[in-house]
Amino acid sequence: MHMAETTETLEDRLSRIHRALGDEHLEAVDAVLDDLEPAEIALLLESLPPAARIRLWQRVPGEVDGEVLLHVHDEVRSTLLDDMDHEEIVAAATGMDTADLAEIFEDLPQQVAEDMLRSMDALQRERLEETLSFEEDSAGRLMRTDTITVRSDVSLETVCRFLRWKESIPDNTHLLMVVDRDGLFQGTLPVARLISHPPEMAVADLMDHEVDSIRVDMKSRDVATLFQTHDLVSAPVVDESGLLLGRIVIDDIVDVIREDSEQALMNMAGLDEEEDLFAPVLPSAKRRAVWLGINLITAFLAAWVIGRFEDALDQIVALAVLMPIVASMGGIAGSQTLTLAIRGLALGQISSTNSAWLLRKEVGIAILNGVLWAAGGGRARAAVVQAAPPSRVIIAAALVINMLAAGIAGIVIPLLLKRAGIDPALSGSVILTTVTDVVGFMSFLGLATYFLL
């Protein structure tokens, strides 16, 4: 396969695939696939309805099946695996790196997994079992075990002979890991130094001793942050005693960053990041129904609050027209704060040492914006509904109160959710909407009941 021309978009490729599949022009399908990398094929597969997806999958060359499976989402991968027989799956997994194999191993049918384990030698099986023993969202699952190690007391000439003896080195190997006799990590030797220094020099004279190593139990998101802040291309992975276990390269981190961004986007809507856009109607409806049910409960809570002030609404009809303004402004203000807070938590920018300062800042912003729009929106409200001056004052006060509550909630909610071990992006928006609706309606209708009736 070779790289496709960058001028062709995904939409263009989809159109070509759809036309070729519809016309049963399989040679044209093969021509499109031959121009694409495995990750691009995976994206095409995710962009097709189930029937067309399976037809395209059957045309994917067997030698790239494994790589394509690695790049598709879990739900799509399951449907593709269901279309493969045992021998095809085992063949697709042959030659995979241990970390890549571990990523799909748990999705395999039990019989296929057992057959695959039996086909491995003892060392491969041991490495796979060790990788699977680590938590899914950890450096242990990300790391590659194809690390080249050298000793510090040997010469560069010895290292070069060793590399020539191996005939080939793993992809993305620009660093050699230096260890002692017990396998404890000591530093790294850049490959470039092998050819830029005299061969009689010792590794100890050229190696980098101060190297960022990664604990095997470090969260993958924290690993990505470390790569970003330290401009790393690869890094060693060690256990608690400093024993070298493997390495993580930038290719793996790009996948983590992409998955995290997709997760944050989908969770804001209460969806799984592995949601298949072209999944059948029934399973998609079931997944979304749960989140809609939660939202319905919160809506009933807001309706219950409104119902407590039925007498006020009966006597002053204009209040019903003005109520959405208070809830809407509070919701928008809270969403802005919530989004910034979730982003700050994801980047590790918010902690117990600065959260109080951040809360005070958001309170100040809420008060300023609340007063600004409460005062500046008076004429607009008067144009929408002929409300008496007291009603205008009440809605202005309620607006300030709700925006203040929104600013506080936008900071406090994600902090509390994180402390409870819940992803703030998953449920923060629902809780925030409930707070702004309840506080908005209660403050507006409560003030109206107290001062106008």
Q: In terms of topology, how is this protein built?
A:
Blueprint: H1 10-22, H2 26-34, H3 38-46, H4 50-57, H5 65-71, H6 74-82, H7 86-93, H8 98-105, H9 110-119, H10 122-132, H11 139-142, E1 149-151, H12 156-166, E2 175-179, E3 185-190, H13 192-196, H14 203-206, E4 214-215, H15 220-230, E5 234-238, E6 244-249, H16 250-267, H17 281-307, H18 310-315, H19 318-346, H20 355-376, H21 378-384, H22 389-419, H23 424-452
Parallel strand pairs: 1-2, 4-5
Antiparallel strand pairs: 2-3, 5-6
Helix pairs in contact: 1-2, 3-5, 7-9, 8-10, 15-16, 17-23, 19-22, 19-23, 20-22, 22-23
Keywords for this entry:
disordered N terminus, MgtE N-terminal fold, Tetracycline Repressor, domain 2, mainly alpha, 453 residues, CBS-domain, 3-stranded mixed β-sheet, 3 domains
